[in-house]
Recover the amino acids of this structure.
């Protein structure tokens, strides 16, 4: 299994004003033409505005599939295509959709090695920047969330690099299935427990699922 980095995007947090609010965010990331060093918690020159809900070792890199952009442009009836990275992602990736990849899968990308930890959770910033109050629900309902990576080995990464699977997790719980569990579409107790027991799952998501069972 292999994907390709269509765009590598970074931005330090800044104050952003929209039609309805002002907030501190690194959402408006900029594509990079040169290689960027990937640290354990972030790309060099990148950051997060809301450190309570974003960033850290379990959410070091945000990935969004390139293939979703055309679908959103059509479904949102936009006059012009959405520009990358409209979803605030670090890596816009071709060929690795949520159906294809699993929690715990390990990939090489450039000099780095990364591992999938959980689905990306859309937040209010997404809705505010796109000026679409319904966007969070649309992302959740479609399952086009993207996903997060932890960094197992640091190194330089660049647009155009291959993202190559080097270890498939034996549990085979896809990001799509994880989304269905996370948002309550799948209420199978056995499958929920299987996901909880995947030690590579982001700890914050594990805690959330465990609380749901109480």
């Amino acid at each position: 299994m292999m994907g390709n980095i269509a765009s590598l995007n970074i931005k330090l947090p800044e104050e952003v004003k929209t039609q309805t609010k002002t907030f501190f965010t690194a959402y408006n990331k900029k594509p990079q033409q040169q290689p960027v060093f990937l640290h354990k918690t972030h790309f060099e020159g990148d950051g997060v505005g809301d450190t309570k809900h974003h960033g850290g070792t379990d959410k070091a890199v945000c990935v969004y599939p390139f293939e979703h952009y055309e679908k959103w442009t059509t479904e949102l009836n936009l006059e012009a295509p959405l520009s990358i990275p409209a979803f605030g992602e670090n890596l816009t990736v071709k060929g690795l959709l949520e159906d294809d990849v699993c929690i715990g899968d390990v990939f090489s990308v450039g000099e780095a090695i990364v591992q999938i930890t959980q689905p990306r959770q859309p937040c209010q910033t997404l809705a505010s920047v796109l000026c679409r109050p319904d966007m969070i629900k649309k992302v959740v309902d479609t399952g086009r969330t993207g996903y997060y990576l932890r960094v197992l080995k640091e190194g330089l990464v660049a647009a155009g690099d291959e993202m190559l699977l080097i270890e498939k997790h034996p549990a085979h719980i896809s990001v799509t299935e994880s989304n269905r569990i996370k948002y309550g579409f799948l209420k199978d107790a056995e499958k929920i427990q299987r996901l909880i027991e995947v030690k590579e799952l982001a700890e914050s998501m594990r805690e959330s699922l465990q609380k749901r069972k109480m």
